[in-house]
Amino acid sequence: MKNKTLSIGLLASAVTLSLSVTLGSQSAFAVVTDKDISQDEVTPNDVVTYGMGQRGQRYSDLKKVNTKTVKKMVPVWAYSLGGEKQRGQESQPLVKDGVMYVTGSYSRIYAINTETGDELWEYEARLPDGIMPCCDVINRGAALYDDLVIYGTLDAKLIALNAKTGKPVWRKKLGDYQAGYSYTAAPLIVKGMVITGISGGEFGIVGKVEARDAKTGELVWTRPTVEGHMGYLNGKENGITGGKPGQTWPGDLWKTGGAATWLGGTYDPDTDLIFMGTGNPAPWNSHLRPGDNLYSASRLAIDPDTGKIVWHFQTTPHDGWDFDGVNELIAFDYKDGGKTVKAAATADRNGFFYVLNRENGDFIRGFPFVSKITWAEGLDSEGRPIYTKGGRPGDPAAADGKKGETVWSIPSFLGGKNWMPMAYSQDTELFYVPSNEWGMDIWNEPVEYKAGAAYLGSGFTIKPIYDDHIGSLKAVDPKTGKIVWEYKNGAPLWGGVLTTAGNLVFFGTPEGYLLGLNAKTGEIEYKFNTGSGIVGSPITWTQDGEQYLSVLSGWGGAVPLWGGEVAKSVKNFNQGGTVWTFKLPKK
Ligand SMILES: [Ca+2]
Ligand SMILES: [Ca+2]
Fold first, then answer.
1. From CA 105, how far away is CA 139, in angstroms rounded?
2. Distances in Å between the alpha carbon of 453 and those of 106, 173, 282?
3. Whole-number average pLDDT of the chain
4. Ligand nearest to the CA of 199
5. Are the CB atoms for 271 and 303 separated by under 8 Å?
6. Of 240, 484, 551, 577, which one's alpha carbon is 20 to 30 angstroms from that of 511?
7. 167 C-alpha to center of ligand 1: Å?
8. pLDDT digit string (tens) for 207-258?
9. Cα 3 → chain centroid
10. Which ligand is nearest to the CA of 455?
């Protein structure tokens, strides 16, 4: 018996030794459980969800790095994504047990030792010719579940890899890339299911939200986001979205209605609801589709067990400006006269910030978060826009049949805020919104649907509205609508935000800087040049008692491709692809 005990002991220490060689000082490789995911916000030793928690608040209670110490923060390693492929790097890394999982441009994914920056494995999806991503070859991040790391690819596939080895375990098709479907969002894990949306809103696709068994990839339910399409649960019909076709769309336009769910979603465990946003109705030319065009340009609350829409809130009914309603809806609570309000907030492409009752979708309040809005005069008591007369680009049929009247519109279609996620501080009770101040000339043209071809029926040129800045990081009070402070940036902001209990707000700029601002005042407390523009989202976590911070650097995304006159001003920014990791020096 003694010998047996001894040999088991030796075996155990041998295992520990070999793991420590691979994973540095961290403990043995552990699977990611539903509990790890639902607790992610309050477990600072890992980051196992996109959004640093299912609610997507991007808040960390870590404060070793704070307004007093942050000036001493230094890079500890930088990892190059390598290869000849660069372009936009919009990913948020994940961290578990001393391993970082980060996606890169062109549907690549990497596992890196968080202590040393050593590569553990790399996987590159083989992409076919003819993929049709609208807005650069980006990817926003992966999901972790059990022993899997799951991410989507530009040819609209979902791939699960073994997190330890990087070898594929399952692979599912989300849509037909030849019809314009693609995938760029970070998947969301809810109750053992992997929840995905779909990209392709500029190609007349039909948006949908889907749930799959995260371990096997088997489809559980699918919910189309355009009125008239049938949903399915466990292979059986599960009700037509909106009840029946034709209520808010003319003719057959609902069949190619867009409403792409391209940014993925958040989940609120408190109300047990998935929040997903939907993009523009297709085509952009709104005169071809009178009506509200449900459920485009909306936020949807979906029951994760049934895949049914519980409530919806449409930010831009009958959108005519490409004001996709996909931006993240973040659950948060606040006190109003001693009563706790279960709210959720979102900063829309259309320039308005909305606070909703997250239990039923009721409008609580809304206000502009950009300095100028031309297309609407305000919001009514239910949150519906009051359209400005003459603010909608004109109907070609009312002109020469080829081109309708051009209007100057603020915000531009790239939005008062685009995909880049804001953060909510539980300390300051402010939202930190990465916004942009710009406008566009926009006009309409005739268009017909053709599978796999752009389906816009619009032309546009984006232009700055101020001489000195486009980007504007704003501290927004959701209770009053007050902009508490603003940090102006020359180039448009295109990366996500992180806020911490150290009274700091971190984000990157296209000029290449990682910035740390004072969360209360907006003063610059930290500035580091990463060598390429930052369009990724920073994270922070703790390891061996030290606070780490990581961000992916690599300029690209939609601005250089679609930015019109703005694109000219950023064309000399160098591309890249590097994960930068920082911490305070050891004494
Ligand atoms: Ca965590
Ligand atoms: Ca769009």
1. 6
2. 21, 20, 12
3. 95
4. 2
5. no
6. 484
7. 25
8. 999 999 999 999 999 999 999 999 999 999 999 999 999 999 999 999 999 9
9. 56
10. 2
The answer to whether the CB of 496 falls within 8 A of the CB of 47 is no
CA distance readout (Å), 367 to 41, 360, 376: 28, 20, 11
403 close to 421: Cβ distance less than 8 angstroms: no
pLDDT of residue 29: 75
Q: With 60 as the cut, is the pLDDT of residue 461 above it? A: yes
User: In whole angstroms, what is the distance from residue 129 CA to residue 46 CA?
Assistant: 37
C-alpha 121/C-alpha 517 separation (Å) is 34
* Residues belonging to the active site: 322
Cα 201 to ligand 2 centroid, rounded to whole Å: 5
Interval 412-423: pLDDT, tens: 999 999 999 999
Can you tell me the distance from the alpha carbon of 547 to that of 582, in angstroms, rounded to the nearest whole number?
A: 9
Count Cβ atoms within 10 A of the Cβ of residue 246 and give its class: 0-12 exposed, 13-18 middle, 19 or more buried.
middle
Question: How far apart are the CA of 105 and the centre of ligand 1, in A?
Answer: 25
Q: Determine how β-strand 498-500 pairs with β-strand 59-60.
A: parallel
**Ligand with an atom nearest the CA of residue 277:** 2
Query: How far out from the chain centre does Cα 491 lie?
Result: 20
pLDDT at residue number 27: 47
- The helix (H) or strand (E) run that includes residue 121 is strand 119-124
pTM: 0.95
Between CA 129 and CA 116 the distance in angstroms is 36
Distance from Cα 456 to the centre of ligand 2, integer Å: 9
DSSP-based three-state secondary structure for 449: coil
Two structure tokens written together for 123:
């996987």
Spatial neighbors of 445 by CB under 8 A, at least 6 apart, are: 285, 396, 402, 403, 404, 457, 458, 459
Residue 299 Cα distances to 265, 273, 360, angstroms:
10, 12, 12
Spatial separation of the C-alpha atoms in residues 366 and 343, rounded to whole Å: 12
Beta strands in 315-426 (DSSP E): 330-336, 339-347, 352-357, 363-368, 376-379, 385-387, 407-409, 423-424
Determine the distance separating the centroid of ligand 2 and the alpha carbon of 539, expressed in angstroms.
27
Residues 6 or more apart whose CB falls under 8 angstroms from that of 123 comprise 108, 109, 110, 161, 166, 168
CA of 134 to the centre of ligand 2 (A): 9
Question: Rounded to the nearest whole angstrom, what is the distance from the C-alpha of residue 538 to the centroid of ligand 1?
Answer: 14
Which of the ligands is closest to the CA of residue 97? 1
